[in-house]
């Protein structure tokens, strides 16, 4: 097994133009809070500092900060959010029945102890958010697991912001999963084995002999791990990281999880069913901060462009990958919320006078 070129453990991260993140000396909680606040009020918004904060140890720290930073990471104007979906969004929608079934099965994703009435309201909102995104962009196709992304956003940022974020993610980071077939999703999964081969050829060869494939990681990838983690704080921490990173970062994290369990895997009988059974069940006590750092190191050492040929996927075929650089560049020119608020009020006043 090759030794990863590890940088200092107590490190923060910065973002390069290709979506990779470079490590910087870690800062204390108070300093990190101050840096995030300063980045948010800078004009233009200091998006690289926000990405660094989201990816570094501890992520964005609080839900209050996530509600401020997540929209910036996706270039969303908080003063120009979409309206709540009307009930007509459900009429004659081809995915309505499947969405409702999946939303009803999402009970475990809500906090323990949440009153049933409150959960029911949120499930109704989740149904409407999903259908509204699909209605807006007919080229997007619903997949089972999409609701796991929707509920994570809804619980953190509320209905209107969740709608805006899900819409943006569906057209960028999650776009390959929303094709009419699973071909693009399978291609993304194909990056997993080349990453493992680069780091631990023995483990890679064992998994090839076992013919286990990569489907064990499917639900990890398409739900950003929301479906498989029982502790919501871990899910939010990973969303901080993924929102600040390249669209393929979830597959790099999958590789670090498999590598972390290397001894368990090699001790298992070299049989497809046995290895799949082991890997498809993620331990709930994983060292997430360590794995996040290792995933970033893997991305830096073995970027997608290096692995694309082995993964049988050229970047131009992946909408998520091919549009990422332009999407990331667009986030660099955002005004701070205080300016957006003034501009929104001024625009409203002008409209009133003209009326």
Automatic annotation (TrEMBL):
<feature type="region of interest" description="Disordered">
    <location>
        <begin position="1"/>
        <end position="25"/>
    </location>
</feature>
<keyword id="KW-1133">Transmembrane helix</keyword>
<dbReference type="InterPro" id="IPR000195">
    <property type="entry name" value="Rab-GAP-TBC_dom"/>
</dbReference>
<dbReference type="GO" id="GO:0007030">
    <property type="term" value="P:Golgi organization"/>
</dbReference>
<dbReference type="Pfam" id="PF00566">
    <property type="entry name" value="RabGAP-TBC"/>
</dbReference>
<dbReference type="InterPro" id="IPR045913">
    <property type="entry name" value="TBC20/Gyp8-like"/>
</dbReference>
<feature type="transmembrane region" description="Helical">
    <location>
        <begin position="206"/>
        <end position="226"/>
    </location>
</feature>
<protein>
    <recommendedName>
        <fullName>TBC1 domain family member 20</fullName>
    </recommendedName>
</protein>
<dbReference type="GO" id="GO:0006888">
    <property type="term" value="P:endoplasmic reticulum to Golgi vesicle-mediated transport"/>
</dbReference>
<keyword id="KW-0343">GTPase activation</keyword>
<keyword id="KW-0472">Membrane</keyword>
<dbReference type="GO" id="GO:0005789">
    <property type="term" value="C:endoplasmic reticulum membrane"/>
</dbReference>
<feature type="transmembrane region" description="Helical">
    <location>
        <begin position="238"/>
        <end position="259"/>
    </location>
</feature>
<keyword id="KW-0812">Transmembrane</keyword>
<dbReference type="InterPro" id="IPR035969">
    <property type="entry name" value="Rab-GAP_TBC_sf"/>
</dbReference>
<dbReference type="GO" id="GO:0005096">
    <property type="term" value="F:GTPase activator activity"/>
</dbReference>
<feature type="domain" description="Rab-GAP TBC">
    <location>
        <begin position="60"/>
        <end position="246"/>
    </location>
</feature>
<dbReference type="GO" id="GO:0016050">
    <property type="term" value="P:vesicle organization"/>
</dbReference>
């Amino acid at each position: 097994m090759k030794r990863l070129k590890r940088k200092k453990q107590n490190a923060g991260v910065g973002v390069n133009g290709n979506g990779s993140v470079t490590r910087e000396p870690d800062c204390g909680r108070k300093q990190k809070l101050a840096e995030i606040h300063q980045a948010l009020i800078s004009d233009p918004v200091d998006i690289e500092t926000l990405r660094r904060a989201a990816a570094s140890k501890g992520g964005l720290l609080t839900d209050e900060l996530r509600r401020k930073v997540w929209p910036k990471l996706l270039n969303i104007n908080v003063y120009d959010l979409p309206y709540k979906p009307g009930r007509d969004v459900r009429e004659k929608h081809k995915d309505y029945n499947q969405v409702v079934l999946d939303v009803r099965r999402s009970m475990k994703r809500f906090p323990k102890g949440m009153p049933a009435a409150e959960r029911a309201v949120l499930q109704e909102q989740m149904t409407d958010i999903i259908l509204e995104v699909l209605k807006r962009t007919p080229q997007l196709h619903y997949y089972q697991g999409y609701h796991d992304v929707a509920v994570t956003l809804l619980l953190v940022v509320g209905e209107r912001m969740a709608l805006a974020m899900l819409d943006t993610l569906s057209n960028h980071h999650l776009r390959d999963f929303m094709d009419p077939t699973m071909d693009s999703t399978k291609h993304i999964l194909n990056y997993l084995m080349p990453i493992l081969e680069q780091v631990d050829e023995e483990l890679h060869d064992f998994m090839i002999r076992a013919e286990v494939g990569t489907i064990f990681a499917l639900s990890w990838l398409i739900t950003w791990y929301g479906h498989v983690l029982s502790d919501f704080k871990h899910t939010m921490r990973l969303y901080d990281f993924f929102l600040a990173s390249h669209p393929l970062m979830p597959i790099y994290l999958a590789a670090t999880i498999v590598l972390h369990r290397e001894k368990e895997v090699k001790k298992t009988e070299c049989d497809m069913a046995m290895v799949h059974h082991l890997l498809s069940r993620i331990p709930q006590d994983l060292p997430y901060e360590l794995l996040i750092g290792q995933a970033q190191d893997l991305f830096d050492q073995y970027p997608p462009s290096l692995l694309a040929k082995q993964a049988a996927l050229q970047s131009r075929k992946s909408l998520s990958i091919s549009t990422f650089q332009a999407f990331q560049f667009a986030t660099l020119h955002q005004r701070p919320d205080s300016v957006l608020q003034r501009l929104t009020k001024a625009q409203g006043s002008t409209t009133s006078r003209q009326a």
